């Protein structure tokens, strides 16, 4: 692997890390804002805990579905491209 490839790989890894952190921070902010209503205790109430759990599950299910759909569309584009490249 040459230096250019190594730099590109490092830049890609950094971008992926930033994206992961941005996604996680967005999840935390959204679920906290939607679910946490009081600050009288160090721990969450049962209702807040259930809300945060449901919020996180919904987020991860959505992210999984988006990733799955992206993969399906990407595969279809690849197949369409291969069909167009085949000799007639």
From TrEMBL:
Keyword Lipoprotein: no
Domain of life of the native organism: Eukaryota
Segments forming domain Tim10-like: 12-71
Mode of membrane association: Peripheral membrane protein
GO CC annotation terms, alphabetical: mitochondrial inner membrane
GO biological process: protein transport
Pfam family, one: zf-Tim10_DDP
Gene3D superfamilies in the cross-refs: Mitochondrial import inner membrane translocase subunit tim13 like domains
GO molecular function terms noted in the UniProt entry: metal ion binding
Principal localisation: mitochondrion
UniProt keywords, alphabetically: Chaperone, Disulfide bond, Membrane, Metal-binding, Mitochondrion, Mitochondrion inner membrane, Protein transport, Translocation, Transport, Zinc
Localisation per UniProt entry: Mitochondrion inner membrane
Family: Belongs to the small Tim family.
Assembly notes: Heterohexamer.
Entry note about domains: The twin CX3C motif contains 4 conserved Cys residues that form 2 disulfide bonds in the mitochondrial intermembrane space.
Protein task: Mitochondrial intermembrane chaperone that participates in the import and insertion of some multi-pass transmembrane proteins into the mitochondrial inner membrane. Also required for the transfer of beta-barrel precursors from the TOM complex to the sorting and assembly machinery (SAM complex) of the outer membrane. Acts as a chaperone-like protein that protects the hydrophobic precursors from aggregation and guide them through the mitochondrial intermembrane space.
Protein name: Mitochondrial import inner membrane translocase subunit
Organism annotation: Diacronema lutheri
Taxonomic classification: Eukaryota, Haptista, Haptophyta, Pavlovophyceae, Pavlovales
């Amino acid at each position: 692997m040459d230096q250019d490839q190594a730099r590109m790989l490092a830049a890609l890894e950094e971008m992926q890390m930033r994206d992961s952190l941005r996604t996680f921070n967005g999840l935390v902010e959204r679920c906290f804002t939607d679910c946490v209503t009081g600050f009288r205790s160090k721990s969450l109430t049962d209702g807040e805990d259930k809300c945060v759990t449901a919020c996180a599950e919904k987020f991860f299910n959505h992210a999984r579905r988006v990733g799955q759909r992206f993969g399906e569309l990407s595969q279809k584009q690849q197949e369409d491209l291969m069909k167009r490249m085949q000799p007639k």
